[in-house]
Write a structure and sequence with these properties.
Strands 4-3-2-10-9-1-15-16 form an 8-stranded mixed sheet. Strands 11-12-13-14 form a 4-stranded antiparallel sheet. It has 322 residues and is an alpha+beta fold. The longest helix has 23 residues, at 20-42. α2 (47-60) packs antiparallel against α3 (104-114). The chain has helices at 20-42, 47-60, 104-114, 122-132, 145-157, 245-250, 253-264, 268-278, and strands at 5-12, 80-86, 91-98, 119-121, 160-163, 166-169, 179-180, 183-184, 193-198, 204-210, 231-233, 237-243, 285-291, 296-300, 304-311, 316-321.
Amino acid sequence: MVGWAIAVHGGAGVDPNLPAERQEQAKQLLTRCLNLGIAALRSSVPAIDVVELVVRELETDPFFNSGRGSALTENGTVEMEASIMDGPGRRCGAVSGLTTVKNPVSLARLVMDKSPHSYLAFSGAENFAKQMGVDRVDNDYFITQDNVEMLKLAKEAGSIVFDYRIPKVCGTGVQSPIHMNGLPISIYAPETVGCVVVDNEGRCAAATSTGGLLNKRMGRIGDSPLIGAGTYACDVCGVSCTGEGEAIIRGTLAREVAAVMEYKGLQLQEAVDFVIKERLDDGKAGLIAVSKTGEVAYGFNCVGMFRGCATENGFMEVGIWG
């Protein structure tokens, strides 16, 4: 028996001028989700069920960029993606290009449990959702007025960087300070959500869900549904990442945490620190992690990361800044 541990995140990359009211709303949501997971763990719910439960709650609340409240594509619609992974046996499921599924993380779970595959996308994923009878809604359900206004600003200004909800207009002809794959991008919305858990049996699990980049091209897939990049769990640890998806993909960030623990013998926080420092190149990102021994850790190299964590021994922390 080991002590349980849980961590949640609501995205890395926070505007330093984020109003105090918005900061408090974020902390309240993270605290609510932590308490939901803690109650389940105290009732001996397995880790895989806890991560799904918590991420469903984050998807249902429109505050962060997942499920309802997802960032809008260049066409003003929502395309969502998610993944989930169970450490024992490294079982996993992932989905992309969802437009009607109310809780993408639960469809990812069904891909893992009820299909011979690990990853379904776009029309194939939607058809699978119909077959499984999951809750489905019109695309309008996911669209919030805040995100409609943000997309309008993005298209009008042509060069805006969004770190959370506060836009910075970089006038016409001014190069964006954010780059992906070496190219400047005009829109960045890093509010992915995720949860990692280790239960009393030492079983690790991880789940991640997002609406992706604001004003992204139709069909763009980020790191969140990619096993080993945005999400990973094994018999050593569970990891969920957030931030610049292209950088996370190149660094196989989530798997790298497990790899350096296995092959370099690092402890969890040491592994997280190493990966954030050595595997992101010029990218900006963050991650949360738990180990099979009940440790919890996080790290990020950007201004802030919405996160919370708790352990069985009574430790609990919810924060945004470094």
